[in-house]
Predict the structure.
Amino acid sequence: MSAPQLVWFRNDLRLADHAAIRAAAAAGPVALLYVFDEVTPGGSLGSWAMGAAQRWWLHHSLTALARDIAAHGGRLLLRRGAAGVIVPQVAREIGAAAVHVLHHVEPWAAVQEAAIKADLGADLPLNRYDGAFLIRPSQVRQDNGAPYKVFTPWWRRAQRQLPPPPPRPAPMMQFHAGGKSDDLDSWNLLPRTPDWSGGFGIWTPGEAGAAARLKAFLDVAAGYDVARNLPSQEGTSRLSPHLAMGEISIASVWHTIADVLPAAAAEPFLRELGWRDFAANMLEIFPDHADAPGRPGFELAWRDAPADLSAWQRGETGYPIVDAGMRQLWATGWMHNRVRMIAASFLTKHLLIDWRLGERWFWDCLVDADLGANAMGWQWVMGSGAESAPFYRIFAPVTQSAKFGAAAYIRRWVPELAGMDDSSIHAPWEASPLLRSAAGVRLGSTYPLPIVDHAAGRARALAAHAAMKAADEG
Ligand SMILES: Cc1cc2nc3c(=O)[nH]c(=O)nc-3n(C[C@H](O)[C@H](O)[C@H](O)COP(=O)(O)OP(=O)(O)OC[C@H]3O[C@@H](n4cnc5c(N)ncnc54)[C@H](O)[C@@H]3O)c2cc1C
């Protein structure tokens, strides 16, 4: 029998359309390994170890993957530690002929790979394959070879290389029986006390859960272009946590939508998938995108305001749309995209708090936490990224909330305002005392007064921006 082939899973926890598994299975019996590596990201690259919400997801995703592998007759090996040490160790333990892995762009991926290659030497190759993105990010370049830093020209160019290859099913596999494995429970990925994960029951982590979510989205996909901006509706796919953990390939999402919808109806959704690739592109160009502004020197005189930060985190700012979003995030590990933009703008502009504190909170709370997408989202809203909205574009929470029909969304997540009518729920402090009292709302008691006045917060942010520019030019 030929020597075993070691497949090393990263955030690509699936069996279907996984090029590393296909290549390994074609070469010999496979051993399938996941390494929980909190060490490499916590080293010289800043502390971007997996956040609490995603650890919950990982636990359930690995449970599902192990079950799926068992159904094929195999076993998932689980190990914890620096992947740069563990992968060569397991490769030697089982006498592997090669290691197979998908290409990822987080800065720690390259550090892990360099350590593995240095350890294994030339005799035991580390083979990398595409499949985590629509297109390998480094393959979308301008004629002169320079990378793109703005989405629209990047997207135009990327389309020359799209669609991605059609997805392939999981291959027939023979399994190598050896290899030691940790017990998943010993990793303590789930919250203990208090257990904040009660609202996470809306999710079904794993490959089957991802496929079911995509199937459910098909019912509403034709209306995506309009509905995606309306937080009160379930108009988006909610595939992000599945995609972040790689439980479904981006190519299969692309082809499913492109097959069922006419081209013009599919385009808005396919373009959003493009944003995911673009975030990876930005992370390759700016490996420190999560920690440093894409526009060098874009540092405002941030306020050190722990009480305001805490009010934002807890969903007690007095702005219903912001509070609804922050509570949805805490309860379910996910927040609607439009509300992410409003909440991020509120923190960085109205409260003038460093975007990195918000980014960290999202990282810890999001089940779809993705280093590149999170950094790009924050920098886009903030105006500090190479691809950004201008700083002076400050989302007006009340206007946005009314414009995008968020009343039902607010009622769902801020139940103390449920008695307010559709027009006054966005700004309860502007409603008449009579109306508030009929709705059972006592400002400052049952629901907070706004922690900052919109016009004053806006003016303070613009002044801080002007001061930064003046200092730059001076
Ligand atoms: C401040 C901020 C932080 C964010 N942090 C993250 C994050 O950590 N992880 C993450 O996946 N997305 C992040 N996003 C992008 C976006 O909010 C989510 O991808 C989207 O809300 C996920 O919901 P969905 O799956 O229903 O999206 P859909 O609208 O159904 O889109 C389909 C898929 O396209 C991709 N996508 C859509 N919009 C974007 C975008 N703007 N950037 C990158 N990919 C996109 C996602 O993979 C998504 O699942 C952030 C946005 C902002 C403004």
Q: What stands out?
A: The mean pLDDT is 96. The longest strand covers residues 30-36. Residues 228, 236-240, 243-244, 272-273, 275-276, 279, 337, 340-341, 344, 362, 366, 368-370, 373-374, 377-378, 381 surround flavin-adenine dinucleotide (CB under 6 Å).
